[in-house]
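User: Here's a chain of 427 residues. Predict its fold as tokens.
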Amino acid sequence: MKKIFIVLLGLMLVGCQSPQSQPTTNQTKKEKGDLILKEWKYLFWNGDTSKKGYYFLKDEEEKSYISYYDYASKQEVYLCNKPECQHKDETCTAYLENGSSMMNQILVYGDHLYMIETMGFGMNALGEREQKGPGIVQMDLDGQNRKELCRLDDGYEFELNNLIFADDELYIPVTKTQNVEVNLNETMQVTTDKNLCSINLKTGDITKVFDMKYKNILGGEGRQLIMSTMSYSEDPQKYLDEKNYKKYDKLMMNAKVNYEIYDIDTKESKSVQVNHQEIGNYYQNKIYYIEKNQLYILDLETEKISHIIDLPKGSTYNFSMIINDYAIIEQWKDKFIDTYKISLENPKLEKLNQSTRAPKEFVQILAETKDQLLVVYDREGKEEKTWAGTMQYETQKEYVGLISKDDFLNNKKNYEPIKTLTKKRRA
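Assistant: Prediction complete.
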């Protein structure tokens, strides 16, 4: 539940006051801020950015740490301010006791970092180490004053997807899943419960906002939450309860996509019915999507659909992201072929030459600030045989750097390298 805080005058002055010294309503009322979206396409890489640097989780020799790319110095440092620290135990602010960094996410918001743990560990009354369920740990931007903000009930977990910050609240989906045996030695994981929950960043109180079992967060516009919704010809839960998994799976595969706009203050919502096949990409109150090699735009305000541009036939296209009003499209045909940019103001298909050395791939964008991108712009490695006998490219060294959005879009490779502590971010 969204709370509105009123800042009260804490010190009452005795004596006469001039009219100019009297507080006004505008001075005492705290303004509500716009919703802040944290996108999974960036959080997936176990990191998040502030204006000054990039915080991320990494593994080294079976230990986990919080590390930091400083944008000013272009260097990586452990999130630790002790000059002689060996970073080996919990006395170090960068050290993570709870195991693999791959299982956690770190977020930066305001004056704090928030680490989402898929599981935690603590000491029981007997002094024994015991496992705890998913939770959120809060700490200062330098890693100090670490404390547990909240912990979910048994059986529940945070959904690893887009999430929203709003003032003193974090809006995040909380799910409950179960594994069902479809056939002998074949199981399927199904979501039995999913709610949007708000977590108060001061108290850690968790409040259910609404049921979002068939919904996903796409973005935020002002104080409005933008979501995709899935609709079905029948209620899938019916067939799940009957253990008719074949029918259940068929219904899920044939879902239609629509959209919903929810105001977190008034609790009012608006549905936009379009019955699309795929979930689109949200940007500035519009949905962009590709259907049959054509790029379209859905205006959520007018509910009007417009054709933007045709894409060459014979390939599959993935909508990657939007940077400075340019849609970034990847072309695939059994393997990655090329990347294109399309101006949303003057649509035309242009090659975006920001790829790695062979095997060719679109560069890996880790984070985005107002004017820059943090990018893994190249890598070294070799093909190695997997346990299944197939060949797979194994990265041995990554090149991480900053580049202005203008240079990136203009096919300039003016990357400013980050001096890293290890050859790659993930062990």
